[in-house]
Hints:
heterodimer, A: mainly alpha, MetI-like fold, B: mainly alpha, 73% helix
Amino acid sequence: MEQLTGQSISSATPGRVIRTTPWYQRRRTRQIAHAALVYFLVVPGAVLFTIPLLWMLSTALKDPKQIFVYPPQWIPDPVLWSNFAKGWNDFLPFNRFLANSLIITISNIIGNLISCSLAAFAFARLRARGKNFFFIMVLGTMLLPQEVTVIPQYVLFTRLGWNDTWLPLMVPPWFGWAFFIFLLRQFFMGIPRELDEAARLDGASSLRILWNIILPLSKPALATVVIFGFIGNWNNFLYPLIYIRTMDKQVLAVALNMFRGAYGNANYQYMMAVSLLVLLPVLLVFFFGQRLFVRGIALTGIKG
Amino acid sequence: MRQREERDFYLFIGLWLIGFVLFTGGPILASLVFSFTNWTGLTTQEWIGLENFRKLLFEDRLFWIATRNTFFYSFGSVILGTLGALYVAILLNQKLPGTTLMRVLYYIPSIASGVAVSILWIWLFNPQVGLVNYLLSLIGIQGPPWLASQQWALPALIIKSTWAIGANMIILLAGLQAVPSSLYEAAKIDGANPWDEFRNVTIPMLSPVLFYVIVISTIASFQILTDVLVMTQGGPGTATLVYVYYIYQNAFQYLKMGYASALAWILFAIIMALTLLQLWGSKKWVYYEDQAA
């Protein structure tokens, strides 16, 4: 019904008048009707999309007695902020897991930044035989499902004695990741060549050009790598699940699932509280890097 | 100078190249070799030719269940995810007050991923006091037991996946904004109504981006794992036994490394075949500007 109305509203315009001013500037009423229609079609979905996270917060603040009340109560009474501290401290050593996740994530981001900008610079700027061949290999790796490599990697790392250590999680990022190499290369390609060619004529080395000219101009792309890298590593579940056995070495994602398995069914308030805390850094990273993040998606999505 | 550049090139890609050989290229070859053996990670490996593949295709009932479940999940989540993202992107591609806020609201769930969100959805799908069934009851529907039900567990995972349409929405929005407004003005002059505009301007101009979204979503949906590991462990019964979870079980629970490698290669083949099929099919509906020129 509403859709039909919407069509007739704007379809009435083109036949009637052709002017340089667009129709929505002409008639205020029409503008309001149009806006109302759009809101009608899009606001309920936006509310629906927002509810789960609000519900998560609401549950996290509840007294156990209130959790299974039906129909559900949105506003907890009393509001138990202490659930966060209790869930975090009283069951599993989450501070330990947090430290582990932070160390691994930060180290991996630094490793990715170094190895991927080097390779991306080579692909964007340096002339060499075989370059296209290697670049196609980079693209090919992006398409390869990780399931094909995860088993032989497991065998390799087990042979090396890396089982139950952080090495399987922390070594590979220092050797580049195809997706980031591609993302940075796309960005570097957009930087005017004259800048580094002038520097090269002055005798600057490739490393100096990368460090002094390209990287300072690539902050948005580097920030995108940091953001994507943070979220990817923070959420990484399969690798720590496969490799880490000792509780003290475990990361947040797997520990959270252990928590669910051991205490989850009886303690929804703690489970939601801890889940929310684990999710919080991801949301914060998004809020601080939102514009860069969107740009990064557009960069790899559209130009790719 | 040219030589120095070439030397630098190989130095600069050196780390990646070593990593490629050790962690990707080498493992790919090793995986191919494993798939022809009966290796279990404990015993010595024996070359058994195509035996793994024969067993999979002709004797392994679970393989077919996993494949069917994965296709079902992929089909559902790609269709809903793409149409949902397109719907929201078109509506929010307008200069109205509040659209930026709504873009953010639609987008946030797609970055909120991982175990924490899987756990949240277990709670949302709770049959008795879960929010999903509560909201359904408001419109007079008695909700199914979702994750506890053979019939509804996989649809539940599809529903959860549509919560993350935000990333596709952003890509489509960028695509919509790249459509020259002159085309719409021309269409208006020719007397086109909004539906004509949508069909004959928006969709053709957006089709390369739409195609990209469909291909990427399909590939991603075939690799669903975390949700199943956390939310259902393949159950109830085999209702959510999806392909990658079956690989995971074979490799890391039963330690059948050879068999799991064969599974992984079949998955790779399926994904490649689907991508090529989509590429082939795209010739009929995807419009590239440079072709017309």
